[in-house]
Design brief:
- The complex is a heterodimer of chains A (119) and B (561).
- Chain A is of the alpha+beta class and 119 residues long.
- Helices cover 36% and strands 28% of the residues of chain A.
- In chain A, strand 2 and strand 3 form a beta hairpin.
- In chain A, helix 1 packs across helix 3 (79-98).
- The longest helix of chain A is centred in the last third of the chain and has 20 residues, at 79-98.
- Chain A starts with 14 loop residues before the first helix and ends in a 6-residue tail after the last strand.
- The model of chain A has no long low-confidence stretch (mean pLDDT 84).
- With 561 residues, chain B is an alpha/beta fold.
- In chain B, the strands form 4 sheets. Chain B has a 6-stranded mixed sheet with strand order 13-12-9-16-14-15. In chain B, strands 2-3-1-4 form a 4-stranded antiparallel sheet, with helices on both faces.
- The longest helix of chain B is centred in the first third of the chain and has 25 residues, at 17-41.
- The chains are: A alpha+beta (119), B alpha/beta (561).
Chain lengths: 119, 561
């Protein structure tokens, strides 16, 4: 048993840091083929500015972290299942690497990429 | 299976719709027999222990689409099968599996039968569909790698044979080979000492199909996967129980031959322990049918003292036998009381939680996580507006939180207990708070107290290693007993007493005094009591308590307070 050193101080994690962990996890989640911005105007801005955390919005209310993901999913997969796995993966990775509890992950499917249309 | 005689051609040159149906059933049945193994491998991308069940549910959904379909047109059958897989896909590996079937079916859609070339083309298209939905670049060392290599093996073998059986055999062989190399491709797997779970699931499906082609029956046991049944609590007869008397005494004398005495005592019963104080005294402990035998024997060799004889079978009946009824809540909730919903495996543990005032127990834990729905229903059904959920397992916390989110009109909080001892420690706080009128209705106060109680307890587990691994500098072989403290691997060994002894050695006697052992469904009460006695004789600083837990998988859970 180790006792953590009780040196007073606080650790704060910026929403942008959480967003980059979330973005990485999202892009590695099966069935997610891309991120999209919440609206068209910011889509253009994001492309121009090469926003590395495009499609991820992190909101903090006190200690609570809420993550909104705007994604493009592969057509032909079951969207609900892909979204559920995505929620689990993002929550797991963010909680594991930042230690911050995530109270909500919302997935907004902004589009489908159709590689293989139905026969 | 009623149709044991395969409708496949003798040389398996072609496969019809009904032939595919039988192969699919065999693949599903073989996975069904192994899905728990697959669950235990699951460490990537999220270690929630459900890859096997997710793949099985996906296969079941796919098969349900064709189960009653007598169409012999291969393209039609495979298309329906793939549609069922997509619609019923569960979890990551289920989605990937559904994409493999989707590509497979697209390639075959016009064909009434398939031959070797069609199988090769369809496998390749299945793999291509699965890779297309994967993040770029696709991570190797997963189910995708196993599927791809199996498919490539078929292309290569096409030059030598057009027998579907031979091609499937090549696929299975290559799948196992690729699977064995997944730890070299994905460091996370190597660290945990496992192969990829999704790849393992796919390999079982292919292997089941091959076994069927070779005429070996692959039985499906149940149509839907059920949570593994728990052993019913049952009172053992005196015969089953074995040696009822626990005998202990000290023997002093000159020239006592310790080895000789140990051999003689061991021959009289079981759980024999003979220890020397290094001077002229031996401490003797043994379980026997006749307590007179060891005492008379020793009395001839020297002077005996501190004789203790106990009837363990009577103790067992007192402790366990009286409690054979199914566990039930004991708490009476008054208006505005705070209620607790807890998750625990095993009747014995359920009883412990009920005794401390839990309003509802949900069966579950490692490898059989309860669903959001079960927890949600429990919260909804108990007659209280303020509810605390105790998940008692790291993998259940998320599910509990989702159930809380779903709940409307009640105030629900999750106290994040990651194991059973923590949960019990939190329950003891709850039970004490219920005794005070000013506290029993105060949700915030109780949640804070229960959360703090989590840190006051050290929890340990002794179980059997399901795979070989080196963790925390400890090397454990598959099948060995392993001891963990606070989820860290501490010891590995073959002897229960030794493992437990070494585990207890890691507890700080200045901080803890009471060690509670919860013995599992597979452990005899007599053995648990004997173990506790042995530990008591080794560690004077701790007092040991033995409680029937009835949990599966874990021989012992322990808590130190």
């Amino acid at each position: 048993m180790t006792q953590e050193a009780a040196i007073p101080g606080t650790i704060s994690i910026a929403p942008a840091a959480i967003a980059s962990v979330a973005c990485r996890a999202a892009l590695q989640s099966y069935g997610v083929v891309g991120m999209a911005s919440p609206n068209l105007a910011s889509e253009v801005a994001a492309v121009l500015s090469r926003d590395p955390n495009r499609g991820v919005v992190v909101t903090q209310h006190g200690d609570d972290v809420i993550i909104d993901l705007y994604v493009i999913i592969e057509y032909g997969t079951r969207i609900a299942t892909v979204a559920n796995s995505l929620i689990n993966a993002v929550r797991y990775q963010v909680e594991k690497s930042t230690g911050t509890p995530v109270v909500q992950v919302n997935v907004h499917v902004q589009g489908l990429r159709i590689t293989h249309p139905d026969a | 299976m009623t149709e044991q005689e395969s409708a496949l051609q003798q040389q398996y040159l072609t496969l019809s719709g009904q032939g595919f149906k039988r192969l699919a059933l065999a693949g599903m049945a073989w996975l069904e027999q192994h899905y728990q193994i697959v669950n235990q491998l699951n460490v990537f991308p999220v270690p929630d222990g459900d890859t096997g069940i997710n793949m099985l549910l996906t296969m079941q959904s796919a098969y349900a689409e064709i189960a009653d379909d007598e169409d012999d047109h291969l393209g039609n059958i495979v298309r329906k099968f793939a549609k069922g897989a997509v619609n019923g896909s569960r979890g990551n590996s289920g989605v990937i599996l559904s994409q493999i079937w989707r590509g497979f079916s697209t390639s075959l859609r016009e064909l009434p039968h398939m031959d070797a070339a069609a199988l090769a083309a369809a496998s390749a298209m299945g793999v291509s569909y699965a890779y297309d939905a994967a993040p770029k670049p696709a991570r190797e060392g997963t189910i995708l790698t196993v599927a791809r290599e199996a498919s490539e093996a078929v292309q290569a073998a096409l030059q030598n044979t057009n027998d579907l059986g031979a091609l499937l055999a090549r696929m299975v062989e290559q799948a196992w080979d690729a699977l064995s190399r997944t730890p070299d491709m994905l460091p996370l797997l190597k660290e945990a000492g496992v192969v990829d779970s999704g790849g393992q699931g796919l390999t079982y499906i292919l292997e089941g199909m091959l076994l069927h082609l070779r005429g070996e029956a692959v039985e499906t046991q149940v149509q839907r996967a059920a949570v593994p049944a728990r052993k019913p609590a049952r009172v053992m007869s005196a015969t089953e129980f074995g040696h009822p008397y626990d005998v202990q005494f000290l023997l002093s004398g000159n020239d006592l031959d310790e080895h000789h005495i140990r051999a003689a005592i061991t021959a009289m019963g079981d759980s024999a322990i003979v220890t020397s104080d290094g001077m002229k005294t031996l401490k003797i402990h043994v379980h026997v049918y006749d307590p007179g035998q060891p005492i008379s024997y020793a009395a001839k060799l020297g002077v005996i003292s501190d004789v203790v004889v106990e009837n363990m079978y009577q103790q067992y009946l007192d402790n366990v036998g009286a409690d054979t009824a199914a566990p039930a809540p004991t708490v009476v909730l008054e208006n505005d009381d705070v209620a607790v919903v807890a998750v625990a495996p095993g009747d014995g543990l359920a009883r412990v939680f009920y005794e401390q005032g839990a309003a509802r127990l949900i069966s579950g834990g490692q490898t059989m996580n309860p669903s959001t729905e079960e927890i949600f229903a429990a919260i909804r059904d108990i007659p209280a507006d303020k509810v605390i959920v105790l998940p008692n397992n790291a993998n259940v916390i998320l599910t509990a939180e989702q159930a809380v989110k779903k709940t409307k009109g009640k105030t629900v909080r999750v106290v994040k207990s990651t194991n059973i001892p923590q949960g019990i420690s939190a329950m003891i706080f709850y039970a004490n708070a219920r005794l005070r009128e000013d506290q029993r209705k105060d949700l915030d106060y109780i949640v804070t107290g229960m959360s703090q109680a989590l840190d006051h307890v050290v929890s340990g587990e002794v179980t059997t290693a399901v795979r070989s691994a080196t963790l925390n500098g400890v090397r454990a072989q598959v099948g060995q007993l392993i001891g963990l403290l606070d989820d860290k691997l501490i010891v590995a060994g073959d002897d229960m007493a030794q493992v437990m002894h070494d585990l207890i050695a890691h507890l700080d006697p200045d901080r803890y005094e009471l060690v509670t052992l919860y013995y599992g469904a597979e452990v005899k009460p007599a053995d648990a009591l004997a173990l506790a006695e042995y530990l008591t004789s080794s560690y004077a600083a701790f007092s040991f308590e033995v409680v029937p837990g009835g949990q599966p998988h874990y021989h012992y859970l322990l808590s130190a307070e």
